[in-house]
Amino acid sequence: MIRHILVGTSGLASDADLLTTAFNLARPFLAHVDVLHVRRDPAQDLPLYGESIPPDMLDAIIREAELNAREASAVARRMFDQAVTAAAIPMANVPGGPDEGQERVTASWREIAGVPVRVLAAEARFADLTLLTRPTGTPVDLNMIEGPLFEAGRPVLLTGNDMAHPDRVVIAWDGSPPAVRAVASARDFIVRAVEVNILVVEDEAVGAVAAAVSGRLHPRPDRLAAHLAWHGVLAETRLVSRQGRTVGETLAETATDLNAGLLVMGGYGHSRFREIVLGGATRHMLTIPTGCAVLLAH
């Protein structure tokens, strides 16, 4: 069960919805919300400037960067304080026993100076789920997603605006190890959903013989549905035609048509190099805002 959610704040206005979402998601699990703000250290960027910039100009750049970092930290902390007050969430740094009244949602605040991508990846190792925001209409920083996914090997939940607990879940299924891990990581959400759909994009619906020849496993969405039934989940399988669309476009549009609150998918089923050069479902879902949250695992 999810009991420890890591939330990466940015010091932007979108933090307000991110924190509200974190507390909403934590309630069914009585989870702890570990809010982390990484204050960027300008000294980490010095190698990027090289030796061609005059010292006085470099000093000015560093001072401005430090000022911006402090302002972002102040905004992030202010929004955190407002969010915990509005939601009446108690603060806690360590778990307490049931007799101490700690079986409830709690929150904590941490601020660490460093490179955001590196710090977030390091801290994600010790959380059940990492929650990041993608404000509506803007793409996400892929580096912030790849850190927890690849460096920590932990699932990431990417959310847009304020989101309650998702009651309609869509699983993007191709039978790959990343997809298997994504389903396992999302099981706490799946078993609480009122509607679960397993999507297989037409290209993935290869026959058993063709799959054996190509070295791929047949996705067998029926077997996934049977597995979820043991968890009390009645899931419907759907074969979706691409109709000239990319896999990412097909998934995004189908999730919207089904009014999904959460899309569960494996991250980078192909090699990262191939995804970057040729594009892929993962990059599409990360760079093109969707109307639902996306849970990724690798």
Automatic annotation (TrEMBL):
Residues 167-284 form the UspA domain. It comes from the Bacteria. InterPro entries: UspA. Coiled coil: none annotated. Gene3D superfamilies: 3.40.50.12370. CDD domains: USP-like (cd00293). Belongs to the universal stress protein A family. This is Universal stress protein UspA. It comes from Skermanella aerolata.
